[in-house]
Design goal:
It contains five helices and eleven strands. The two termini are 24 Å apart.
């Protein structure tokens, strides 16, 4: 699937595949709220209301095709080789208190309360911008994101980026 925004085709990726790349799972994230998207975007992202986040480590402004809800996230730490793999439907890991369990294969799973989305959630990178560009691009978002034309406002801002 993909989205078309301002004439640009933007691919969508399942949440676990998305988070498994580029260290995204451990990135600090700035939350830019929930947005009612246009019907065309809803068809591509799989939701009428999507969530917008900026990943600090990668500079990616990401549309999440679900609204994160409190739940339990899991990270598989591995068998001592320090590899980290995202499992289940974890969206924003890091820093939350939790506990670890080992299974018979020596794999450690750290579980902690966090915001999660369903495993079939789609993600789309709308732009790659640095911190100052993200702030400039989204200046005023709090006033706009819940309005009927909030999504159109965001698309217009993205066209200027």
């Amino acid at each position: 699937m993909s989205l078309v925004i301002n004439g640009n085709e933007i691919p969508t990726t399942p949440v676990n595949d998305f988070l498994a790349e580029k260290g995204r799972a451990s990135s600090f994230i700035t939350n830019y709220g929930d947005w009612t998207v246009s019907p065309a975007i809803a068809a591509g992202i799989g939701a009428d209301v999507a969530h917008l986040e900026w990943f600090h480590d990668t500079g990616e402004l990401v549309l999440v095709g679900a609204v994160p809800q409190p739940g339990e996230g899991t990270i598989e730490i591995g068998d001592g080789d320090a590899t980290t793999v995202v499992a289940q439907e974890l969206l924003t890991p890091g820093g939350a208190p939790g506990h670890a369990d080992n299974d018979e294969d020596g794999v450690t799973r750290e579980r902690f309360p966090e915001n999660v989305v369903p495993v079939d959630t789609l993600m789309a990178v709308l732009a790659v911008v640095d911190r100052s560009e993200a702030r400039a691009l989204l200046r005023g978002w709090r006033r706009e994101h819940r309005k009927d034309d909030g999504w159109a406002w965001l698309e217009a801002r993205l066209a200027q980026a």
